[in-house]
Amino acid sequence: MNLSLLPDLALFVQVVDQGSFSAVARKSGATPSAISRSVSRLEHEIGSKLLHRTTRKLRLSDSGKTVYQHAQQMLEAARQAMDGANREQAIAQGKLTLSVPKAVGRFVVHPLMMEFLTRYPQVDVCLRLEDRVLDFIDDGIDLALRITHSPSPGLHGKLLIPVTHIICATPAYLQQHGTPKTPQELAAHSCISLGEMPGDARWKFRREGKTETIRTQGRYAANHTAVRLDAVKQHLGIGSLPLFTAREALENGDIVQVLPEWEFISRYSGQLWLLWSGNKHMPARMRAMIDYLSEKL
Description:
Blueprint (H helix, E strand, L loop, with lengths): L5 H13 L2 H8 L3 H15 L4 E3 L4 E3 L1 H29 L3 E7 L1 H18 L3 E7 L13 E6 L6 E9 L1 E5 L1 H7 L13 E2 L9 E6 L2 E6 L9 H9 L4 E5 H10 L3 E3 L4 E3 L4 E8 L6 H13 L1
Parallel strand pairs: 3-4, 3-5, 8-11
Antiparallel strand pairs: 1-2, 5-14, 6-14, 7-11, 7-12, 9-10, 9-13
Helix pairs in contact: 1-3, 1-4, 2-3
């Protein structure tokens, strides 16, 4: 079948239902002659007369009855497809894939997922915990959380929380080795850094417009914040941590912030953005997650 004739089939059903070309023309904004040409195209394609036309009314031929019946079924199937899509848009359901940096996923997003899954029982969530930037289309991502000062052009997003870093140690470590009062005094301590590149051992601080950069040293480094937090809690030294990683241990008194009056400057600091590609026809599951994370964070 020539699929370009589908609009003509839809118009044909309207002509039969309305009983005249002029009635359909008024409703669709076309001219009666345009509607007549549409029906003529169908008759030419099928090779049979569909309508017997008089000055007062239209009457279906035997072929017209058959075409009308099947065209009605086609339109009903189309309506059901649209209704189903609209219901899916209105109800939060289906699979939702989030791209999340590893530490953010572990300490920020994962603890919130139990409540989300309870609140939206028809939504399945897949967390992709990777520090590399995934592509929305190629990697099949619905939403992405990224630490950045400026999201990529073309993406829509919502700013959630600032991501700041601090340095911490246990009270026991500081009691044994002393509490640094200035960044320079860190040179005498065992410092736990990221360890991915030489610059990670150079810790930079700022206070009242003054910047200090200190080359630290230590016997242990780890490029995962959960590991560095555990190393700090085991009294191995003073570690650099995102605040969201350290918060619970700080509140419990397991660790304390070192040099709190100084701002610790990290290349991993920035803003945590929730990003998505495009905002038309957004599924309800995406809107539910956007609203939920905005509410919680």
